[in-house]
Amino acid sequence: MSIIPYLLDFVVFVGIFGIMALSLNLEYGFTGLANFGKVAFFLIGAYTYAILSQTGAPFYLCLIASALTSAIGGLLISLPALRLREDYLAIVTLTTGEILRLIVKSEDWIGGGIWGITVSPAIKMTGASPTSKILVNIGLVFICMAICFIIIQLLTHSPYGRVIRAIREDEVAAEALGKNRSKYKAQIFMLGSAMAGIAGGLFAQYLRFIDPYMFLPIVTFTVWIMVLLGGPANNWGALLGAALVQLFDRGTNLIKDYFTLPIDPTNLQYILFGVLIILVLLYRPQGLLKESEIKTEALRSARARGSTAKNREG
Amino acid sequence: MDINWAQILLNSVITGSIYLIGAIGLSVTYRLSNFSNFAHAEFITLGAFIGYWVSSQLGWGLLPAFIIAFLLTGTVSLLCYRGIFQPLAKRGASTIHLMIASIAVGFIIRYSIGAGWGWTPQYFLNTWTTYEVGAIRITGLWLLLILVTLTSALTMHFALMRTKLGKAIRASSSNPELAAASGINVNRVILITWFIGAGLAAIAGIFRGASTQVWPMTGWDIILPIFAVVVLGGIGNYHGAIVAAFIIGLTENIGVVALTNLGLATEYRMALAFLIIIITLIVKPQGLAMFFRRA
ipTM of this model? Predict the structure, then answer.
């Protein structure tokens, strides 16, 4: 296999998982919601895209539908679950993901059950070379990622962003200041799920085939590693984490092709994954990049006043 | 369709017994260490593999298999706690970080097992005679399982209620600060529960492995029903877990009959246990513990 399509394929996956990492970062990094069922919304998006694309709907409609169905799924789960303690929320979302996977696995009429479902690509280019097809995909995925990035960046640096950070730090205090925490949490959960749904749709149309075994809990865990490694509550960190984890994944896959090791590389890859995350949690729990600072007018003037006060003393 | 209710009841007891032995450790450590240890699934798997190795590959028989699996898995669990979870907790890791760390530990153990024994399912070499009592069919393995479950359940009950260690465990789980203030070495209590809990998980793994197959996902296959037992029984509640294990066993086995009659896939029997987790946590997070004194 030549190296160029391999590298481009890597870039596509960085984009798709970048969106996943950004959305988990919004939920966990900024708001403190431990969503252990990210894969559920990825699955909803992917299957919505797959089923809708078979009716011949244009790709942007399919993607919007993916986002909407995932958002509705997120809302349905968040209504009862968001009042729970953080570890209970984690267990509930994890089991929800497994239930959804059981449903698409058992119900053949949804998406072909265990035999999976073929998906038509977003932009059809008959006769184009594989490389140019991947390039078009890169364009599409990165436009979506940029939109998600800008939305989250604007949101988290607005007054709204300060409220969700306040809820993360101390939700009772936030509530006491008149902020309806359930409403904010549900909104964030819906938005995060919608983005995961878009990522799922992009994933489905890129691979052009999906089956229930692509949506194991390990997908959720991979996204968590990306966010924790890159740095929670930092959007650049989420993207960096996505790139690094994909690089690690590809790197260990390359080793498989070029070296013979006494230990099976697939096993080794996951063992190293585990070691990596424990090392990050032990020695760099804040991640590679620090939490992005809030930029506000008030903060700037407070700083300026602080420095003039210091000058006066000196 | 003629339904053999006696057999369904027996099957429920069998399923429930494996879940119960598997759940006790998870329940108690969840309560004492304040996070749910997902690597518990891998303690089950590890037990199954050690049992398979001792009894079928080395050919030493079942009793040594149980003892060695119990001790080795308990030791691995102790090392995980001392080496990873305790240092993390001391550095102020949040519950979520500890849960992620336990998934990571689970990965390391699961894929190390995969590297050592491979991913092809293995089977215990033991053959079991099947007894027929009236309409009920029961294998020797199941008789042994019921015997082991009864013995360990009773031992645990008396140990928790009567012995000094049992009282220390109960005191530490209901109020660690007060327990420490009254001179209980809470840290030692936590270490002992991690050891015994994982040892029991290993026993559950051997039974699960001997009745189905042994492969690196043996534990993960049943970890969510075991979570259902822990949650429904009330986290850290031993007597609640006994009742919950039987309820989950019944749900699964009656579920299969009901699902077949409704024309649905029997795969959904797992979904029933999952629904119990979700509903319990949302409606009554303390689970069945409300019916029992904290134990």
Answer: 0.87
